[in-house]
Write a structure and sequence with these properties.
Elements (H helix, E strand, L loop, with lengths): L4 H4 L2 E7 L3 H11 L6 E3 H8 L8 E4 L6 H8 L2 E3 L7 E5 L10 E3 L2 E3 L2 H9 L5 H14 L1 H4 L5 H10 L3
Parallel strand pairs: 2-7, 3-5
Antiparallel strand pairs: 1-4, 1-5, 2-3, 6-7
Length: about 160
């Protein structure tokens, strides 16, 4: 795995999905998870602005010493040898990266703004996907822009977390 902003600023753990990332992604959409697993990167980008197919399935998990192992167990993932995984579990460097999550089937995707940041700072074709996400955001501003009061409500929710 090449060192890039997305994988450098977050704790990135390469994993292997036995049935492949596409099957795991379809399972997430159909069933979701019991614990936090928020999709970002190429798989989330192609849902709003399809540019390319492929790349690892990238999933944020809650920070915490055992959360990567808990998500890996729930999703039947194996740790990848030599960093060559088809799934990347990320522990965010900041809780803000998980704000504004969007429901997608039974799963969750990061907010469009976070998706653009993640893709633009990712490896390989991800920056092109980030540009496509930005173009989608410009074309659909009214669909995703915050309305007055939403930010204050979200900030109150953050302050109430343990």
């Amino acid at each position: 795995m090449r060192s890039t902003g997305l994988f450098r600023s977050n704790q990135a753990v390469p994993m292997v999905a036995r049935m492949g990332p596409d099957a795991l992604y379809r399972s997430l959409i159909a069933r979701g998870t019991e614990i936090t697993a928020v999709v970002t990167g190429s798989y989330a980008a192609r849902e709003v602005a399809p540019v390319a197919v492929g790349g690892p399935l990238t999933i944020y998990v809650d920070p915490g010493p055992d959360m990567v192992d808990a998500v890996a167990e729930e999703l039947s993932l194996m740790r990848a040898a030599h960093g060559l995984g088809n799934v990347i579990l990320l522990q965010p460097s900041d809780w803000g990266q998980l704000l504004g999550r969007r429901a997608f089937g039974a799963s969750e995707h990061v907010a469009l703004s976070q998706l653009a940041i993640d893709c633009l700072s990712g490896p390989d074709r991800m920056p092109a996907e980030g540009e496509a996400v930005l173009a989608h955001m410009v074309a659909t501003v009214d669909a995703w822009r915050r309305h007055p009061g939403e930010l204050a409500n979200e900030a109150a929710t953050i302050r109430s977390r343990p």
